[in-house]
User: What shape does this take?
Amino acid sequence: MIYSVRGTLIHMEPGFAVVDCSGVGMRCQTTMNTQRNIKLNSEVTLYTHLNVREDAMELFGFYSQTELATFRTLIGVSGVGPKMALSILSELSSEQVAMAVASSDVKSLTRASGVGPKLAQRIILELKDKLKGFATSEISVDTKGTVIADTGNIPKAVAALAVLGYSSADVTPVLSTLDPTLTVEQLIAQTLRRMGR
Assistant: This one.
């Protein structure tokens, strides 16, 4: 319903920011990662998700479309609501979430406040299911959701980006121009930067 808000960032506290959009202050709940990427009294654009509940309407704002896509992916997991997704994205970047899922790293996910081992395992299980049967010339994922890498870190980056909702067709051309010896996190970050996300 509301794709984004753009205006001057007039107020910020832990957990939310207020953007002045032509005289209307839009209060957006935000992650700590978003808050580190925006500055008070400057022009900002936040990509938004509107959550409508019986008793309230909540607007969530993110500095990048990738962070928004990760948020939406996380709230699609059983037992993960918007507040929990914000907590996860305040502790981990989108790239780190994708890597945690692709590598079944429960410990990384449990760093977020309120995420215990059982919920972390559920997040990994449900999001890894999105990778089942995913295959390209560079990477394949077996029916158990295990990433099978052919060479270097590029296949792992393709799998992690798939968790974030990017298709192999979109990311493979960009990844093929990068140094395959970079870490997976560096590959993901550079790919998203080059794609303008």
User: Anything to note?
Assistant: The first strand starts at residue 4 and ends at 13. The two ends are 20 Å apart (CA to CA). The chain has three domains: 4-62, 66-128, 139-194.
